[in-house]
């Protein structure tokens, strides 16, 4: 099993790191599946809009929803996330199969057993290399999910690229 997670300190930095990782890995010719996130600042809100791009070259889906200026709850639009999950699940069954699954975040939805969580399990069962973003609030849930087998990756683009290439080579030998 080749499962890694990355955490950064700065808000939005994990999203930028995983987006850059996707670009590098695609340029290197690896077959990708998954989602990466971009955040767009809103002109009328202190929060940002959250969009995910389905890899390798799929649809961009807005996964945030406006709940109004007084709202304090989670802004995730679960229906939009599940649409992205469905597209990624379909991509896992393509021939040739993706070598790498990138997941923008193992968040509360995944900690509760939904979202990209089943996709991560499916990708690992198929022998894919998986890299996921994780935030501090959900790292314990991620470690429980991975049964302690996931490696924490250095939040550095070159280090992540090297780890993925090494893991893909190992996975190819194992299959």
TrEMBL record:
Pfam families: DUF2478 (PF10649). It comes from the Bacteria. This is ABC-type molybdate transport system, ATPase component. It comes from Phaeobacter piscinae.
